[in-house]
Amino acid sequence: MIELRPVEPADLDKFFEYQQDPDSNRMAAFTAKNPSDRGVFNHHWQNILNDEAITVRTITSDGEVVGSIMAYPSDGYPELTFWTAKSHWGHGITTSAVEKFLAEFTARPIRARAVKDNLGSIKVLEKAGFKAIGEAQGFANARAAVVTEEILELL
């Protein structure tokens, strides 16, 4: 059973653990320059948790912390982002979490971004009703290269 709940302090240890996976970092692309730097990680998450404009939830599957999902302000729109542990990819968890989050977070339009070769995330977003509206390029730390992102929107 997939559930969303407020982030608890112990969740951060799991989030940090999941951030260590090289394949996950590659798919996310826009990650910390050094994902193993716990100080930078802690600072980043403290900023998220202290920002009232950000809605963030822990994703659990059968009670186990498997990732996070949030909406944050970006360029005048809320933007959706999520991270699911690689060990839980391909099981419908992220799709379910996005559906549940969007039922709770009802501001529209809402946007999301995914690197063009991150077909799993794009598929999850499309299942939720997001449509491609453009592309953007940016430097991705995890790939040490400029990548093209698909920009998607849900009305």
Automatic annotation (TrEMBL):
Keywords: Transferase. It comes from the Bacteria. PANTHER family: ACETYLTRANSFERASE-RELATED, N-ACETYLTRANSFERASE DOMAIN-CONTAINING PROTEIN. The keyword Flavoprotein does not apply. GO terms for molecular function: acyltransferase activity, transferring groups other than amino-acyl groups. It comes from Crystallibacter crystallopoietes. Residues 2-153 form the N-acetyltransferase domain. This is Protein N-acetyltransferase, RimJ/RimL family.
